[in-house]
Design goal:
Blueprint (H helix, E strand, L loop, with lengths): L1 H21 L6 H9 L11 H9 L1 H32 L7 H32 L5 H10 L1 H31 L4 H15 L4 H4 L1 H14 L9 H5 L8 H8 L5 H6 L16 H12 L6
Helix pairs in contact: 1-4, 1-10, 3-5, 4-5, 4-7, 5-6, 5-7, 6-7, 7-8, 8-10
Length: 293
Amino acid sequence: MPAFAGGFLYLLSAIIISTTLRGAPTVGLIQGLTPSLEGDPNPAVSPRTPEVKFISHHAFALIAGGALAAIAVGILTLVLLLLADATIFRRPESFSPMRPLILGGGIGVAVVTFAHQVVSALETHKFAVGSDHSNTAVEHALTTGTATALVDYLALIAGLVLAVGMIGLMINALRVGLLVRWMAFLGMFTGILIVLPIGGAELQVVPAFWLVMMGVLYAGKWPNGEPPAWAAGEARPWPSRAPAQRGRAGEPATAAAGANGGSGTDPAPAPAPAGAGGSSRKRRRKRGPGPRR
């Protein structure tokens, strides 16, 4: 299934990018403030010059990581569209914008993910071969350049669009019973991580894991059987834990629970008919007193 490959590629891209950038030289607080303390707030050679040159020299690895991430996001988009179609088929009144949001946001995130690394490589290379290595030139190469700022802005918009579509899809897929509860919540968290790629490769394992589990679900290998809504072709919300636990403990069936307001207790015995006690006393009086001993 492509979902397995998507999860692997997404995790691999995060490992490549984070491992590459981890080797970049860093500038400590004292080192960064030294030019200002010496009376030169804008030195000819910024303390961050080695960092920018390092990124330029490792551009190939970063671009490769961005390309793998873009492919993974493309696979994620296809997985989400398949789930959206299955959800809409079982519940046509589901959140209708989720499909165009996922399609547009997914394509946008895939494109800007790759474009970000390409633009970064071009800007840092221009800095490395140029003669201006001041603080202003460093900021331009890393953050304030026109192309860099534009890509970052588009990445934020595309990520938000995709996240909104994913969250809407997870809610509706859970409602019709295509996803178990923890997979729906994990899918929402995946959408948030795509917008805010925090935590490095350690936390980016979450989207990779979610994609792999979707591959397991699509392959029909879900542990303890797939949600019944897949085979039924209609909305079948996944049963909650409480009824299942009552069934395993041998307690009354859900029909009895429903008769008692869902409490799961045995129904109270029906009251005795009026006058039953009086008829019994009359029969005892007719028999008369028992034999004396």
